[in-house]
Amino acid sequence: MGLLIFYFSPYNSLMHILLADDHDLFREGIRLILQRLDDIAIYEASNREEIEHQLHQNPSIDILLLDLNMPGVGSAKSVKEICTSFPKLAVIVISGNDSTHTIETCLQAGAAGFVPKDSSREMMLSAIHIVYGGGKFIPSKAYSNCDAYSLSHRQKEIYELIIEGQSNKQIASHLNISESTVKQHITELFRKLNVSGRVQAILKAGATLP
Questions:
Q1: Strands (DSSP E) found in 86-148
Q2: CA-CA distances (angstroms) from residue 113 to 2, 19, 116, 136?
Q3: Phi-psi category of 139—alpha, beta or left, where left has phi over 0 and alpha has psi -120 to 50?
Q4: How confident is the model at residue 142 (pLDDT cuts 50, 70, 90)?
Q5: 3-state SS, residue 97
Q6: Are 163 and 202 in contact (CB under 8 A)?
Q7: Less Cβ around it within 10 Å: N or C end of the chain?
Q8: Residue 111 and residue 113: Cα distance in Å, rounded?
Q9: Strand pairing partners for 16?
């Protein structure tokens, strides 16, 4: 598989993405979506062996877009193995199976994001931007059943921003409220979700599916 560089500006850092899927047509479709991003280098792989080869040969790769059902992968166990072997790599799982169990196990295995295969290109690009910025990405329907926890409208807003990886300061700026107010909402949010921190809250999002 070759390296494709679509655009590079000397004023910005180059994002390196490894696209791993065993279907040529699907890879081509994702590649077209990725062309909407500036400053990007794309590597490709069609099986687990090629994934590891690319990662060893190109340590600058930032994000792995991983088809969960490709040869040599198949489960969250493989996600964990890849995340353990390449701890600086951010893995975004792409799968046609977006069940509660699949999403939760992939996140617990170390994935930084999960994108269903039937998602829009906007969602794919959003996931990449959020994960590249150090955040976590979970599709909105993974936490659309927040009513089960009796969350207020504000708590739902804050929950979504936490899942996106935003800090208290960023949340406060986004919602135009004080950081102390954000902290109060988060304390009550965590109490309702019965979690002790952000990581557990993000994982809990997978359990809120209908």
A1: 90-95, 113-116
A2: 25, 14, 10, 5
A3: beta
A4: low
A5: coil
A6: yes
A7: C
A8: 5
A9: 41
Structure tokens at 106: 């992939």
Nearest by Cα to 158 from 128, 138, 181? 181
pLDDT tens profile 71-115: 778 788 899 999 999 999 999 999 888 777 788 788 888 999 999
Check whether residue 101 and residue 149 sit in a common domain: no
Query: What are the pLDDT digits (tens) for 96-105?
Result: 887 777 887 8
Secondary structure of residue 115 in the 3-state scheme: strand
Last residue of a domain, one of 137, 152, 172: 137
Instruction: Return left, alpha or beta for 176; rule: phi > 0 is left, psi -120 to 50 is alpha, else beta.
Output: left
Tokens of 109: 């295995």
